[in-house]
Amino acid sequence: MITKADLEALIQRQAQPGSPVLSVYLDVDQSHAANLNRGFEAALAHMLRSIEEQLSDASEREAFRADAERVRRFVADYQPRAKSLVIFCDDSADFFWQRELDAPVRNDAYWSETPYVRPLLEVLDEYERYGVILVDKMQARLFTVFMGEIEEHREAFTSDRVRHTKTTGMDHIWSQKHFQRKADMHVRWHLRTVAEMMSHLAERYAFDRLVLAGPVEATSELHRLLPKRLRSRVIGAISLPVDAGEKDVLRATLQLGQEVERAEELKLVEELIAAAAKGERAVIGLEATVAAVQEGRVWKLIYAEGFTARGGECTQCSSLIPEERRTCPYCGGAVRPLDHFVERVVERVVEMEGRIEQVRGRAAERLSEVGHIGALLRF
Ligand SMILES: [Zn+2]
Q1: Tens of pLDDT along the chain (379 residues)?
Q2: If you measure from the C-alpha of residue 324 to the centroid of ligand 1, how many angstroms do you get, rounded to a whole number?
Q3: Does the global pTM surpass 0.85?
Q4: Distance between Cα 60 and ligand 1 center (Å)
Q5: What is the Å distance from ligand 1's center to 334 Cα?
Q6: C-beta atoms surrounding 58 within 10 Å
Q7: Alpha-carbon distance 33 to 145, whole Å?
């Protein structure tokens, strides 16, 4: 699993002159026919070859081959279990970082001064941490879902499971009513206990969003009983039997999560457009956005999936220049062109503790109509 600290260490890694990092995103998903019989090794070899072919300098090529060989060796020994593999390697600095992801990535490789983390940031943005509570009248189960993986926390509710009250053969009407009432009380008590426990569990398992699952009567009653603070994290309810398997819980949760994320992205883009039109702490378009990044004003960077742009970075003052120029407009220093300009903008925002939001689908189309990228500002 990838933590925020992991990611920050990667982003903070300083460029070492003459010692680039090889970044590899490899699809190893065994449900893709191309990856069977270790087809992903061929895909890797192909990507590495095309980078090497672009290197004209002999010493550069030698440094690249050392990085490439180390990655190739690792992948040759790798037994695919996850959907993707992410590797960053700089052999000359003895730097090797790899993680498996249960989320899909596009095959891609880069050789650049700093680790190419944009696809990783995008995956993390897409996969928030969900808590899923599966309840019925008598039981409660807790799951967390992160980056396409699900985990059940069996210990969460064990002590508080409500046992079913067994009837003892008294079958006249008064008795049935009496037992029914007693059973109803148990159900209410059970759901109230679950709701109370959820506050602690939300802290312990650190989920951003909560999904209620189970029969409709149970989830709607639980929703009513949840503390306000938790209720605001509920993104929806799904109808599932309380003994549903992990796979079914995962599938339903991811589907709900995606629908919610898409709707929120569209809302965010509309808010950005409206705020920028009124000049209320928002900018749209590459030039204005980069200027805001330079000034340290970006609170949330928003950009359309797949957006790329030309630009460079000043070798003297590190300013980002959103166009092709040779000299820096701020200090007159030389400007170095960047292959992955938008990525560098994203990294700057993360370094400033800003947030990033890559939008897809309809939200991306809408944002592209007005300038592909924008930002909500701190001031
Ligand atoms: Zn400069």
Answers
A1: 676 667 778 877 877 888 899 999 999 999 888 898 999 999 999 999 999 999 989 999 999 999 999 999 999 999 999 899 999 999 999 999 999 988 888 899 999 888 888 888 777 766 778 999 999 988 999 998 887 778 888 877 765 444 443 444 444 555 666 767 777 788 888 899 899 888 888 877 778 899 999 999 999 999 999 999 899 999 999 999 999 999 999 999 989 988 998 999 999 999 999 999 999 999 999 999 999 999 999 999 999 998 999 999 999 999 999 988 899 999 999 999 988 899 889 988 988 878 889 999 999 999 999 999 999 999 9
A2: 14
A3: no
A4: 27
A5: 7
A6: 8
A7: 27
Q: Is residue 250 part of a domain?
A: no
CATH of the domain at 201: 3.30.420.60
Centroid of ligand 1 to alpha carbon of 333 (angstroms): 5
291 Cα to the center of ligand 1, angstroms: 13
For residue 21, how far is its CA from the centre of ligand 1 (angstroms)? 25
Spacing, Cα 338 to ligand 1 middle (Å): 15
* H helices present in the chain, as ranges: 4-12, 39-53, 58-77, 118-126, 173-205, 216-225, 228-231, 246-278, 286-294, 341-351, 361-370
Which residues does residue 338 pair with via DSSP β-bridges, in sequence order? 311
What is the distance in A from the centroid of ligand 1 to the CA of 327?
8
Tell me how far the alpha carbon of residue 156 lies from the centroid of ligand 1, in angstroms. 55
Out of 77, 92, 125, a domain closes at 125
Are both 206 and 140 inside the same structural domain?
yes
Domain that holds residue 205: 130-244
Contact 134, 243 (CB under 8 A): no
Residues near 341 by Cβ (< 8 Å), separated by ≥ 6?
Answer: 308, 309, 310, 311, 312, 320, 322
Q: How is the beta sheet containing 149-152 ordered, strand by strand?
A: 149-152, 140-146, 130-135, 209-213, 234-238
